[in-house]
Amino acid sequence: MRVKHKLSSACRCYVLVIGSLGVLPVVWATGSLFADPPHVTWSLLAFLALLNGPLSIRIPSMRATISVSEGVLLTSALLFGPAAATAVAAIDGLAVSVWSRKRSAIQTLFGVGEPAICVSLASLVFYYLAGVPPLLHHVTTFGALVWPLLALIAVYFTLNTVLAGTAVWLDTRAAPLSLLRQHLPNLALDVSVSLAVAAAVIETSGSPALAIIVVLVPMLLAGYISSHHTAGRLEDTNRHLSELRQLYDSTVETLAMAIDAKDQVTHGHIRRVQLLSTRLARALGANDRDVQALEAAALLHDLGKLAVPEYILNKPGPLTPAEYEEIKKHAHVGATILSKIEFPFPVVPIVRHHHENWDGTGYPDGLKGPEIPLGARILAVIDCYDALTSDRPYRRRMTHDDALEVIHSRSARMYDPTVVEAFVQLHPAAQLENELMQRDSRVLPSRVFEVTQPPIQSVLRAVPTTSRQHNRARVTQFVATLQGNSWRDAGRAIATFIPSVLPDSVAVLFQLDSSAHQLVVMGMHQGLDARIPESIALRRGVTGWVGANKQSMLNTDAELDLGEIARMTCPPLRLCSSWPVSDRTGMAGVLTVYSPYAFSETDHILISSLVDSLPSALALPQPAI
Predict the structure, then answer these.
(1) What sign has the CA pseudo-torsion 271, 274, 277, 282?
(2) Among 206, 414, 487, 597, which has the minimal tally of Cβ within 10 Å of its Cβ?
(3) Is residue 5 pLDDT above 80, yes or no?
(4) Distant-in-sequence, close-in-space partners of 301: CB < 8 Å, separation ≥ 6
């Protein structure tokens, strides 16, 4: 029975007293051996005592260990006498302390002195009752020594249990009976093995070499069998742990896919963030446990977005303050959900705090500087970088250098300067994209949200007040010409009409195809004809978002819909505004207008009046698609 490394004050005093008393029999035994050296075979037993730790036999099916020490001590006591056995006990106790490498000086003193007391007293009782000299030179039958042998074993194990158990009780204050019940199975096993060893030693005592072999060979054989069995159990355990790890990984990825099902923004965002985050963590010297935590947190950091309305998640325009407050909830919600899972790594703190700012202005808890977990500081930088270099509903992607300039500008304000500098040294750009193309990117995206201003500052279209009034009158007259038209005819007419009231603008009318979950082009300006796809999926780009959420968008980046085509027109189309077209049955289509100029409030009213009049003018019940 071993004493814990950190001891209470009462236990320290007790251990010191017992260890000091144990010095007396050790000194007596050392003097006796110098005065009367034992047979040379005793040195073999002393050597076995030094190997007590490695030769211990572990029984995996039980929480038990058969130590070689009892066999060596009994053999030494029976063959060479009390002094030799006491010396072996001291060597054994010292060896155990050396092998453990965790014992303090006072524990080592107790480990040497306590078994010396037990063995010396038990051996003296045996020889007093047996009335014989050491059995090396006095062959005796086992039957004649049964009772002295039982006394030897009883005294030894009783003293050992009481002395060591008292130390544990003083240190832990555990109930003595509970300690005894816990120790009893091991004690019974040790007693049984000791009796068998003693019997073998007595029966072969006429030949010391044979006696030692009888003890040693079975112990080594049992140790080999035990080690072989333990290795098999370890292999099974490792296989089970590997299966659990695969289950853990698949569970994490499933949760990440649930995020993507809600937040459809940029394919591969989570994978890129995971790869770069772990690279940066290793560059900063994070340990394996923190890196594994960051791997999981990178996949799950946006889990809380499941609680955010979808129209906010995928909004292709600036968030209102109220919408931004809704977005901010995702960090707390995600951490709350994940706190119910017993992760083997500190995943939850990273998820909760990945939007904290270095200067303390972040959310949800306003942590500042080193208070923010390192994993969260790393994730914040990588998440921002990937958001800046990806197409988003509210802007086109930035170049690598432009993104680094933005991150540098936020260093020491939003981000840890050390993390930022380490990230710059990684040079993550085209090389990362090539690597990700070769990886399995089943887990999809996320986004970083900020309250933004319109992405492009553009001059307003200069239109005199009289022209505005004239334009409104023209809209009324134009709508009258659409009565009974099909969607396709109306789309062509609108594409021709809009540039006359909003110079240089381009209009496209889309009709909803609910069965295919897409918006089909019904008419467009001839300048865009055949340059853009004939349909746009719901939730894709500005037009798809408006079609899915039935909310208009004003002054949004035109490239989010048109891509590079927006730059090919003359003048280039920089902004767009989009309006849902609804009838009594619900969503029917979308009208989107693209322009080189920012749409004014008057422009908004003008196009809104056109859109409001379309349902009554068009033949909505039987659209011609």
Answers:
(1) negative
(2) 206
(3) no
(4) 273, 334, 350, 351, 354, 379, 383, 446
8-state DSSP, 572: P
| Beta-bridge partners for 89 | none
| CB neighbourhood size of 17 (10 A) | 12
CB 373 within 8 A of CB 346: yes
* Cα Rg of the chain (Å, integer): 41
Residue 374 has pLDDT above 90, yes or no: yes
DSSP assignment, residue 415? B
Asked if 608 contacts 473 with a C-beta cutoff of 8 angstroms, the reply is no
CA atoms within a 13 Å half-sphere pointing along the CA-CB vector of 559: 14
pTM of the entire predicted model: 0.47
Handedness of CA 547, 550, 554, 560 (dihedral sign): negative
DSSP 356-414: --TTS--SSS---GGGS-HHHHHHHHHHHHHHHTS-BTTBPPPPHHHHHHHHHHHBTTT
User: Going by C-beta distance under 8 Å and a sequence separation of 6 or more, which residues neighbour residue 539?
Assistant: 264, 314, 545, 547, 548
Q: For 427-481, what is each residue's pLDDT tens digit?
A: 654 345 444 444 443 333 333 333 333 444 445 555 444 455 667 788 888 888 8
Distance from the Cα of residue 167 to its chain's centroid:
40
